[in-house]
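Hey,

Quick one before I head out. I ran the complex with heme C overnight. Inputs first:
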Amino acid sequence: MKIYDLWAGPFPLLQSEAFFLLQIISAPSCKHFPLEDIIPDPGDTIVIVPPPPDDTLGTPCDPNLIYFTQQILPILQSNCAMSGCHDAASAQDGVVLTSYESVMNTAEVVPFNPGESELYDVLVEDDFEDRMPQPPVAPLSAEQIGLISAWIQQGAKNLSCDPDSGGCDTNNVGFAAYVFPVIQSYCLGCHSGGSPSGGINLNSYAGVQAVAQNGQLYGAISHAQSYSAMPQNGAKLSDCRISKIKSWIDAGALNN
Ligand code: HEC
């Protein structure tokens, strides 16, 4: 029995297993990725860890619920809703994955039943030709797939919460515990693989450190003038996320 810690989109857990999977799926020869290793079995225990606190005040996140806005949409935006794939303009196969409405209208989600839902089926499809996301985008991680499945099992609701309701703590921000998880959720769909967007590969400490130190990372996420606003096509990161990442950069962008 495998135990998966699901830390939703913006707030993943860096388990060594997740890291290990990431290494495999980001390897160039991902053709024979062992599917059975990444799909949770029905008997697996799924531990859903609540998002880390962020800033502003709003509805606190209930660790037992999956929040579409904070946990599911960022995965879809980063890995599926790119130009040429499932943004509104490209709409491959008629599927648009840019908002709750478009997901429910075009991705054949059957609430409470992941197995009947096209959105889930394509993630675990045995046939590599039909598996989503298609190369060069890496397959979703076990945690991300488990999260989408759990969201559908909970009725595929359009919930939103405020991961920042506990206050924004910008002290001692770690790369592994905080910065990289945020990047995995919001950025890697475009910034990893063989031809990462803008030639910027963020799927390693070295890649992130390079843009942290030359100012591009903060410029892009804070939507500063003369930088391209990131995440592209997605909502701006919360003020707290931006402050925490800035605090990590200001402290030397360490591999901590
Ligand atoms: C949907 C695809 C997509 C996502 C998601 C995305 N990016 Fe980008 N990013 C791009 C593209 C395309 C470029 C290059 C073209 C440009 O600069 O607009 C780029 C450029 C950049 C640059 C260089 C910007 C500059 O002006 O120098 C940085 C830094 C960057 N991205 C960081 C990020 C970070 C951090 C995230 C996540 C918070 C992210 N990106 C999410 C597509 C994406």
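Residues 78, 82, 183, 186-187, 189-191, 197-198, 200, 211, 216-217, 220-221, 227-228, 230-234 surround heme C (CB under 6 Å).

Talk tomorrow,
K.
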